[in-house]
Amino acid sequence: MAQLSGKVVFITGGASGIGAALTARLGAAGAQVWIADRQFGVAEELAQRLRDTGARVHAVELDVRDPAAFATAIAATVQTAGRIDYLFNNAGIGIGGEVDTLTLDDWNDIIDVNLRGVVHGIQAAYPIMIRQGSGHIVNTASMAGLVTTSAQAGYSATKHAVVALSKTMRVEAATHGVRVSVLCPGVVRTPILSGGAYGRNKSVSREDLVKLGEALRPMDADDFADRALRAVLRNEAIIVVPRWWKALWYLERLSPALSMRTAAAALKRTREVQSAVPPQ
Ligand SMILES: NC(=O)c1ccc[n+]([C@@H]2O[C@H](COP(=O)([O-])OP(=O)(O)OC[C@H]3O[C@@H](n4cnc5c(N)ncnc54)[C@H](O)[C@@H]3O)[C@@H](O)[C@H]2O)c1
């Protein structure tokens, strides 16, 4: 982690969950961190708390759906710090539910944040990194970007897109001296497990969502951040944490049919939870 000392880092969705844990770990390692979030008050509180421990952390109000605001925030960081070493495109929302329950607004919302938000970050920071001849873009996808999921088609579609974007870009970026990795968390204990500040589930209550998440043995966010950062420093291309989730990824590649059968079993369990919930 000593390599992170003095590095300039910009993290979207840094106010909560994984982003907050990454920020704390990076700040403790001596990096200068800009946390950009739609929840500005929460981001500012976290930044102040970490500054009190001696870390160099700043909060920025940003909605990643706004490309001009993203470009302005990155430019301001570079103006202040002189460069940008890491961009963590971490902000994301979960909109769960079977496809027949999703409205066009649901599709637009999840694509705008989870996919377009990442694209906006790349548009803002990549040209600067190319000019620098250095930098590392870390896009957050999910295990839902690697395997067949159940009742999460919108989320899974955006996360598969982020994996595809990251793999293709990694090959190109290497020729400019820029690194690209994609983070694929399994299940991590954060507010997103109960819907998060901006997400929703079309048929499962927040309480039951937590139960479904807990059944998947969520990892602690600080532990996750530590492992993920070590893999980023090793410049791994596709980072799966916790590691045991790699078994599902192998299964997907070995036998997509078997992977779909696993997803069908998961869908059955989700429907059982749904049927126990009175219609809203
Ligand atoms: N927690 C998990 O189990 C898990 C699993 C796989 C992937 N992920 C991914 O990890 C990332 C972080 O999620 P988390 O678990 O920490 O959830 P979280 O809800 O705790 O944090 C998400 C953060 O993103 C911010 N955000 C949402 N929309 C935004 C927008 N339009 N502009 C700016 N900020 C916005 C929120 O305010 C929040 O601070 C997400 O991309 C998520 O999809 C999480």
Automatic annotation (TrEMBL):
Keywords: Oxidoreductase. SUPFAM superfamilies: NAD(P)-binding Rossmann-fold domains. One of its GO terms (molecular function) is oxidoreductase activity. Residues 7-191 form the Ketoreductase domain. Pfam families: adh_short. One of its GO terms (cellular component) is membrane. CDD domains: SDR_c. It comes from the Bacteria. Belongs to the short-chain dehydrogenases/reductases (SDR) family. This is Short-chain dehydrogenase/reductase SDR. It comes from Mycolicibacterium vanbaalenii (strain DSM 7251 / JCM 13017 / BCRC 16820 / KCTC 9966 / NRRL B-24157 / PYR-1).
